[in-house]
Amino acid sequence: MHWADVEANNLLTRGRKHLINTGITPSGTLHVGTLREAITAEAVRKALSDKDADVRMIYLVDSWDPLRKRYPFLPERYEAEVGKPLAYIPCPCGEHKNYAQHYIQPFLDSIKELGIHCEVLWTHEQYELGRFAEVIDTAIRKKDAIARILKEVSGRDLPEDFFPYSPRCESCGRLTHAKATGYEHPYVTYQCACGHTGKADIRKADGKMPWRIEWAAKWKVFDVTCEPFGKDHAAAGGSYDTGVRLAKEIFDFEAPYPIPYEFVQLKGKGQMHKSTGSTVTGVDALRITPASVMNYIVLRVNPSRHIDYDAGLGILDMVDEYDRVEGMYYSGVCEERDRDLLRAYELSQPEKARPSLPLQVPYRHLVSLVQITDGFEGVLATLHRMGAVPDPVSPEDLAILKQRVECVQYWLSSFAPDEVKFAVCECMPSCELSESERCFLRELYVAMEGVEWKGEAIHDAMYGCAKGAPIGARGGFQVLYKIFCNQKQGPRLGFFLSTLDRDFVMARIKEASC
Ligand SMILES: [Zn+2]
Ligand SMILES: [Zn+2]
């Protein structure tokens, strides 16, 4: 059974009404790995929904978290913003409402594209609305018990003056500098390091709970029954363990069912964007492959296993696997061990899976086609000429093809290694060919005259000629790359030549062989 269905069944033993909580602190650009949480949560939501449970999901943007430090990517003026809540700091580009929105908006756009059904909530608004007032009051009244729990679970001593609420200084605007000096509902009096003394109203956005306590408080406030989180929080004595006890002993609430997940690691060469120099972001990931493939990359493995995300050549293998599983999903023919992959495929569709097999044009082929032809229309015309797609292509399939072409174009310009790049030389490049190379080309010309103009047939003809020739198969392929692309390597030759005009190919071979 697919792991999302296993988790859904586990949840159903607790009841039929569920709220899945996910979230993130938008302190900077979000790495591709941050998509894992939302994709994992959505799969469980879908699995529960398929079993007719009453399920909702929220995405909590931690916009009320303070800016921890001036990160290297921030201009100097942000030094003055350290300690202030992210929602109250100006956005770096000037086009968003605030700092938090600047970094989270691309991510929110991404989760929409991935088909994630969630209600987005901003913690600063929840504080402003007073939704945490009651839990803050409870926490302050039971602060000694909280201190004891935190110490017992984490083994760490807390400072003498521990207080489960940090007032936001109304003078300097920081959440990190004021010390509480007293409490009389609903006011916390404080003294700030900047010299200001004042009082914070717990019913307003005048302060914040420390995050471990806030985490458990959120469960209570939103009635959370399930939460996926990075496995670092799941360590013994870690924040989930403290959360469980805080929820139960302080807030009288049963902690949500946990789904700890492993991290996404970037693997191999080419994990830096060629023009921006930044690592693979969530936005990049959705421009490299369609959303369904990104979902599949996450859902094909159990959350307890780490994922190697390879934005270089690995992407081609990943899309090949997706296409293979898609084929099995629609044929219904698969090995028993692949059953879970079919469910992963189904859960990966942002909309419902289509009634019949969508058009599949392999990424590897598009990588060649995009470099040979001019834009999407050129790719389509070539595919038609090759008889590789039906005529006409249905509007749904056309949309799929168009998206793939755009993704491949983006990949070639951003993360693709140089070895897959090439251009067809319009005229014969000036290269020296040996007599044995020319001899091979003359034989190849004859062999190719009668060949069917399809990738495999061309490949067989080339291979047949080259392996018997003194230059060998490798030498044969190299000479062809030389005369068509003026380089030593290139795309898969058979398919590549089949995409070119037959007369052009034959004329070039003849010219080079003389
Ligand atoms: Zn901005
Ligand atoms: Zn202050």
- What percent of residues are in strands? 5-15%
Q: In percent, how helical is the residue content?
A: 40-55%
C-alpha Rg (nearest Å)? 29 Å
By DSSP (H or I, 4+ residues per run), the number of helices equals: 20
* Distance linking N and C termini: 63 Å
Overall pLDDT confidence: 95
Uncertain stretches of 5 or more adjacent residues = none
Q: What hetero molecules are bound to the protein chains?
A: zinc ion
Oligomer: single chain
| CATH architecture name of the largest domain | 3-Layer(aba) Sandwich
Q: Can you tell me the number of structural domains?
A: 3
Task: Indicate the overall shape.
Answer: elongated
CATH class of the largest domain: Alpha Beta
CATH-derived topology of the largest domain: Rossmann fold
- Major beta sheet summary: 3 strands, parallel
CATH superfamily grouping of the largest domain: HUPs
Number of strands: 12
Strand order of the largest sheet: 1-2-3
Helix-strand makeup class: mainly alpha
Describe the structure.
With 514 residues, the chain is mostly helical. The protein has three domains: 3-132 and 212-261, HUPs (Rossmann fold); 265-420, Arc Repressor Mutant, subunit A; 435-513, Arc Repressor Mutant, subunit A (Orthogonal Bundle). Helix content is 47%, strand content 11%. It contains 20 helices and twelve strands. It has helices spanning 3-12, 35-50, 99-113, 123-128, 133-141, 143-154, 211-222, 239-250, 282-288, 291-299, 314-331, 339-348, 363-372, 375-386, 395-414, 435-449, 455-468, 472-485, 493-499, 502-513; strands at residues 17-24, 54-61, 119-122, 166-167, 178-184, 187-192, 197-201, 207-208, 226-230, 257-261, 264-266, 307-309. The strands form five sheets. A three-stranded parallel beta sheet has the order 1-2-3. Strands 5-6-7 form a three-stranded antiparallel beta sheet, with no helix packed on it. Strands 4-8 form a two-stranded antiparallel ribbon. Strand 9, helix 8 (239-250) and strand 10 (257-261) form a beta-alpha-beta unit. Helix 13 crosses helix 15 (395-414). The longest helix has 20 residues, at 395-414. The radius of gyration is 29 Å and the shape is elongated. Bound molecules: zinc ion (ZN) (2 copies). One zinc ion is lined by residues 169, 171-172, 174, 177, 192, 194, 196. One zinc ion binds next to loops.
